[in-house]
Design a protein that fits this description.
This protein is an alpha+beta fold and about 240 residues long. Helices cover about 35% and strands about 25% of the residues. The protein is globular, with a radius of gyration of 17 Å. The structure holds coenzyme A.
Length: about 240
């Protein structure tokens, strides 16, 4: 199964979105909240349109695809953003209209999750004076997982971070954490996303915050479980 890592183009976006949908499945509550009905045909089309707008609106984000060169099938992808003397703006220009969601509550819930994550990102990038490399997304089709493709997709951003002498950081799912720790990322803490009180009955969304300090190449730290959800903070 030879794999080539290539820069992804706009026309690849529907496939990249489908890969994310397959990889995250319906088990990741934040993904379900961001991309309602992403497992349906209509949800995939709407999600891909939103993904395309996001791609086209951020010239600092680089999309890579992993291609099985035997079949020409795209089987994984990554999105890396390089911040170079640049602070992160929020809300972004391409923030989706509330009508993207089924109802106003779902829209508010999703935007409050995104807002929480963005606040942490903004603060960290600011602490580094606008110089950092961020892994936004990494996903591999389930049938192709655990064959080293995730690691290959990580390489581009890590190499870029090393060239620039920048730290890299990410918000990790439970599945990703072991891989990131193998590549020099250091676990910081488990984050439980705070949402307004009215959403207290909804499933908790959580992630692990990991940083790969400048100059660190490979960590010998052992993968651990996580992220662990605690009682959510309310905003
Ligand atoms: C995380 C992900 C991208 C890894 O891709 P991959 O191609 O399997 O990665 P690699 O083969 O290079 O590395 C595999 C390592 O990832 C971790 N990993 C992969 N699948 C895992 C799982 N189901 N449970 C726990 N760890 C897992 C392990 O550390 C594994 O190493 P091991 O096989 O020696 O135990 C893939 O599992 C995925 O798409 N998961 C769903 C989406 C997701 O969680 N993305 C990360 C968002 S931060």
């Amino acid at each position: 199964m030879p794999i080539a890592i290539l820069e992804a183009q706009d026309e690849d976006i529907p496939r990249l979105f489908a890969i994310c949908s397959l990889a995250f499945g319906q088990t990741e509550p934040a993904w379900r909240a961001f991309f309602p009905n992403h497992w349906t045909a209509a949800g995939r089309i709407a999600g891909a349109e939103r993904y395309l707008k996001t791609k086209q609106s951020d010239p600092n984000a680089t999309y890579h695809k992993a291609v099985d060169t035997d079949t020409s099938e795209i089987v994984g992808f990554s999105i890396w953003t390089v911040y170079q003397d640049r602070l992160l703006d929020y809300p972004p220009d391409e923030a989706p209209a509330p009508t993207y969601w089924d109802n106003a509550d779902d829209a508010e819930y999703a935007m409050s999750i995104i807002g929480y994550i963005m606040k942490q990102r903004i603060e960290y990038i600011k602490s580094l004076k606008g110089n950092a490399v961020h892994l936004n997304t990494l996903a591999v089709v389930p049938a192709y997982q655990r064959r080293g493709i995730g690691g290959k997709l990580l390489s581009w951003g890590l190499q870029r971070a090393d060239e620039l002498g920048f730290a890299s950081f990410l918000e990790s799912s439970a599945m990703g954490r072991g891989l990131y720790e193998k590549h020099g990322f250091v676990f910081q803490r488990d984050m439980t996303i705070g949402v307004p009180e009215k959403f207290a009955g909804r499933e908790l969304c959580c992630y692990a915050s990991l940083i790969r300090p400048m100059g660190v190449r490979v960590s010998d730290s052992k993968p651990r479980n996580g992220p662990v959800c605690h009682q959510a903070d309310t905003q």
